[in-house]
Amino acid sequence: MVKQLSPRNEPVQNRARKQRDKILKVTSELLKTVGLDDLTTILVAKKVGISIGTLYHYFPNKHAILYALSELWIEKIKLTLSDIESENIEQMPLKPFVNLMVERLSTIYKDSSSVLPLVAAMSSTPELKKTHDKYLSSVYGGLVSLFLRLSISLSSSDATHLARFYWQICHSILSDINNADMDGDQSVSDLKFLLFSLLERAKANF
User: Fold this and answer.
1) Residue 113 CB: number of other CB atoms within 10 A?
2) pLDDT tens-place string over residues 101-120
3) What is the rounded distance in angstroms from the CA atom of residue 126 to the CA atom of residue 63?
4) What is the model's pLDDT at position 2?
5) Over the stretch 172-200, which tens digit does the pLDDT of each residue have?
6) Which residue, among 34, 95, 102, 84, has the nearest Cα to 62 in the 3D structure?
7) What span, in angstroms and rounded, lies between the C-alpha atoms of 36 and 27?
8) In 3D, which of 61, 60, 41 has the Cα closest to residue 51?
9) 3-state SS assignment for residue 80
10) Is the pLDDT of residue 129 over 80?
């Protein structure tokens, strides 16, 4: 049975929008503390301080809440990549480009308290598979476009491979920093070095 992922009602009044945002915020925090398997609409409603009936007025099930969170994360990534794309990439040496990329991405990871469990939920939940595929396609496509503007001579398959590898490193390291699993300053410095090395090797056709 395919679960409904769209919200039951789009909030119009300010109070309703705040209630919806609170549901999303609490779910995000619970996803980080209790995990996907123990996350239930009953638990979310309890933590938000509303009845389960009121919660269902906004979202029909927990997967609909996760879908809404996933869409917000995808939009953040797309806006960040668009922001980077607006820069004069063609005239930018590799090192400033990497600095720009890591600094912009670091900002949104710091603002997202449960990025790692959310992306894990997207990839492991059948109901969210299309959303996860959309997320990765958007990220990889954006990175390939940026790499081509850096005058890196790559075939289509090599560009996609580099984008996948590049993004997996970024996401893994920034998620660990965000979860306080790694020293922030040193890890950011090491991340920049790794990403710079990848692009430098690609540009040299090594």
Assistant:
1) 16
2) 999 999 998 888 677 888 88
3) 10
4) 43
5) 899 888 776 666 788 899 999 999 999 99
6) 34
7) 10
8) 41
9) helix
10) yes
Q: DSSP of 51-69, one letter per residue? A: -HHHHHHH-SSHHHHHHHH
Residue type for 96, please?
P
Backbone angles phi, psi at 86, to 5 degrees: -75, -15
Whether residue 177 contacts residue 102, with contact meaning beta carbons closer than 8 Å, is answered with no
- For tokens 């306080």, name the residue: 180
Q: How far is CA 186 from the centre of its chain?
A: 22
CA angle centred on 168, ends 131 and 202, rounded to 5°: 125
**CA–CA distance, 170 with 23 (Å, rounded to integer):** 29
Cα-based angle 37, 119, 3 (whole degrees, multiple of 5): 55
Q: Please choose, from the candidates 9, 174, 202, 183, the residue with its C-alpha nearest in 3D space to the C-alpha of residue 76.
A: 174
| 185 secondary structure, DSSP code | H
- The strand ranges marked E within 142-201 are none
CA distance 89 to 86: 8
CB atoms within 10 A of CB 180: 8
Specify whether the CB–CB gap between 145 and 85 falls below 8 A: yes
